[in-house]
């Protein structure tokens, strides 16, 4: 796992009945503290919901949200919850959430929230890509149809020639 998580300890022999694997226990496990880049829970054109790394119960941890500013000290936000919702601004912003337990950082995840204009640009690029794919698909279909038509006409002529 990355950061904090749950791991199942499996037994692969000696399980009851004909089971090939059986769960012995479920335990908390820890991995590297820096979990890298996360994927938002929900992302729309206006706002983004981002989760910190946590396991139940979420109130057992402290969450420190930071706004990362290039070449400057990170700005600590007054937000102590596992999930943060941010609305898009005129420029991209990178956020980081540190999950802490007993004063120790046990997990950290980052998110980049793109500006509204960048999201509109990405959306229009997706539409353009979709249209270019559609154009390519249409060209292939037309080619197949014309080829099929030519082959069919050729076969009909061959049959008529053999009959005559």
UniProtKB/TrEMBL annotation:
<keyword id="KW-0812">Transmembrane</keyword>
<dbReference type="InterPro" id="IPR037878">
    <property type="entry name" value="SPACA1"/>
</dbReference>
<keyword id="KW-1133">Transmembrane helix</keyword>
<feature type="transmembrane region" description="Helical">
    <location>
        <begin position="139"/>
        <end position="163"/>
    </location>
</feature>
<protein>
    <submittedName>
        <fullName>SACA1 protein</fullName>
    </submittedName>
</protein>
<keyword id="KW-0472">Membrane</keyword>
<dbReference type="GO" id="GO:0001675">
    <property type="term" value="P:acrosome assembly"/>
</dbReference>
<dbReference type="GO" id="GO:0002080">
    <property type="term" value="C:acrosomal membrane"/>
</dbReference>
